[in-house]
Amino acid sequence: MTTSWTGPVVPLNSGATIPQVGFGVFKVDPAETEHIVSDALELGYRHIDTAAIYGNEEGVGRAIAASGIPREDLYITTKLWNSDQGTTSAHDAIDASLEKLGLDFVDLYLIHWPTPRRDLYRESWKALQQIQADGKTTSIGVSNFLVEHLEKLLADGGAVPAVNQIELHPALQQREVVEFSRSHGIQIEAWGPLGQGKYPLFVEPSVTGAAAAHGKTPAQVVLRWHLQNNNIVFPKSNSRARVAENLDIFDFELTDGEIAAISSLERDGRVGSHPNDLN
Ligand code: NAD
């Protein structure tokens, strides 16, 4: 990216860089997507995380078109849905996503879930490498992959995923997957960075204490914890005020003690599906 983005970026093994903070649109109503993504772009976000299954790629595309922001300043991720895994379907799926987004290419294309019972993720990974070679995406990666799934992909000897997008927040830190991914040069994207609002992170004393100490909100503290742990995040909100709040996290730093106290909130607190259960 040349860039109107002034926040931190993370280097990927594809040679590209990705803005460390983006805006996610899971469960954003298709009818409201253009409006809230337009707000996010106006507020300074340049990285948008969507997926075919979210049903809102058209809204993301309309917001991009209306923004007038140069394509090279934007970072757009979408994902291959489970029922489109396999070679032919994956090629059709990226074409459908690009059409809905109104783009010639995305910046990052991910296998959304391993769906091990389908057992098509290795074939799909080969298709993603071809999609990248065809110029339809700059980088390719995976989502919700456990170590066992990554090991199988890596054993095939093709491209190494640029990212693994996994559920990650203080109550579920997935340390084994994170360590394995990073040891292979795979960056970590944390989905549900705020625990989807389902996990009571914002009343934890380690979070509220750091928020008071820095004059920030609990959500900003949790997002800052992610940044200082080198995670890429794209919190979602339907409220413009919260979308702005979630980007205002570059002007303070948590101490090592504050990071450690928040990290001690680990309790296997998964709020989404287990990757081996979603097929
Ligand atoms: P999130 O952790 O971002 O939580 C979103 C919820 O947190 C909001 O609905 C709101 O209730 C609350 N919230 C947001 N900002 C807040 C603030 N400042 N103060 C108080 N509460 C606030 O959860 P998410 O949306 O599931 O995750 C973020 C993105 O990750 C998604 O939008 C999507 O792009 C991606 N994602 C990917 C997968 C996957 O399987 N790859 C799964 C889920 C989400």
How would you describe what is shown here?
The structure is a single chain. This protein is of the alpha/beta class. The chain is built from ten helices and ten strands. The chain has a domain at 17-197 and 231-237: Alpha-Beta Barrel (TIM Barrel). Strand 7 (137-143), helix 5 and strand 8 (163-167) form a beta-alpha-beta unit. The chain is globular. Nicotinamide-adenine-dinucleotide binds next to helix 9.
Give descriptors for this structure.
279 residues; alpha/beta; TIM Barrel; 8-stranded parallel beta sheet; two-stranded antiparallel sheet; 10 helices; binds nicotinamide-adenine-dinucleotide
Summarize the structure.
The chain is an alpha/beta fold and 279 residues long. It has a domain at 17-197 and 231-237: NADP-dependent oxidoreductase domain (TIM Barrel, Alpha-Beta Barrel), CATH 3.20.20.
Show the helix and strand layout:
Layout: E1 9-11, E2 17-19, E3 23-24, H1 30-43, E4 47-49, H2 57-67, E5 75-80, H3 87-101, E6 106-111, H4 121-133, E7 137-143, H5 147-155, E8 163-167, H6 175-183, E9 187-191, H7 205-214, H8 218-228, E10 232-233, H9 240-245, H10 256-263
Parallel strand pairs: 3-4, 4-5, 5-6, 6-7, 7-8, 8-9, 9-10
Antiparallel strand pairs: 1-2
The chain binds nicotinamide-adenine-dinucleotide.
Nicotinamide-adenine-dinucleotide (NAD) binds near residues 49, 144, 193, 235 and 246.
